[in-house]
Amino acid sequence: MTEYGTGLHPEARALLDQFERDGIRPYDQLSVLQARAAVAAATRLQGVRTPLALVRDLLIDDALPARLYHSRPETIAPLVVYLHGGGFVTGSVAAADRPCRALAAASGCAVLSVEYRLAPENPFPVPVHDCLAAIRWASAHSRELGADPARMVLMGDSAGGALAAACTAAVRDSGDSPLAGQILVYPTLRPTRGNPAPSLQSNGEGYLMTRGSLEWFWGHYLRGCQDTTDPLAAPLLADDLSRLPATTVVVAEFDPLRDEGLAYADRLRAAGVPTTTHLVPGALHGFWWMDGVLAQARDLTEYLAHDLHTRFGFDD
């Protein structure tokens, strides 16, 4: 694997060059509907659909759509509750279908992908409340899912990482059934405006996700200034990160969000939380959904599967 500091991965560079030739515009130059269509169309960058023994659509509390993936439905497996990325505005269970299939197959875990409601129609804190409802439902109905409630990990990428971090802290505070861990993949953890993270400057232009696009997403998600420091919206700004479960934070080298992910991992360690940081050299934000063109994405799926087994003790 390319070492950190040696530059953008050649496949990532080729992808950026192709986007430039195709005239792909950043999100802050699109309408909400155009942005959603662009994310849906980007599934062309994903690999083949992994066949699984069980893929089932269901409703949480008869209201919230979700999709269950299980490679061994005859067994009781660890459960990954997955919250998709998309800047709180875009993304869907359908857009994340192939990455979830690949993770379920590689890890042997059941994966429950949640269709939380999106901003701006449903701004903060609605998506957080949806995800909390899904976590509680999954815990209560785990046996129906072929899953073990004592081995449940919350996972999210990008905006889904913010939701996962917020919900993990909320579960701790509520006294609900504790989570076995959380996995945050290149998470966004505080609003971009006023954020001093150096990577927002060094990687804020020219690397797929731009600072302007991040501000556009946060602008649609938050209701106003009162939300910018709420720890359910901005987990990095929470006063107390103690007593959280074992955490893995994945960051991409050429991501404007890289440094806030690293800062969150440092704060977790300082609070006594067992924390692993996995920095992917030469990588762009959002790369996990691009396994059809980026070997880094396929490598990350294998890393996550191994992490679920070794980090969280899911040995069977």
TrEMBL record:
Keywords: Hydrolase. SUPFAM superfamilies: alpha/beta-Hydrolases. Residues 80-288 form the Alpha/beta hydrolase fold-3 domain. It holds the Pfam family Abhydrolase_3. GO terms for molecular function: hydrolase activity. It comes from the Bacteria. Belongs to the 'GDXG' lipolytic enzyme family. This is Alpha/beta hydrolase. It comes from Amycolatopsis ultiminotia.
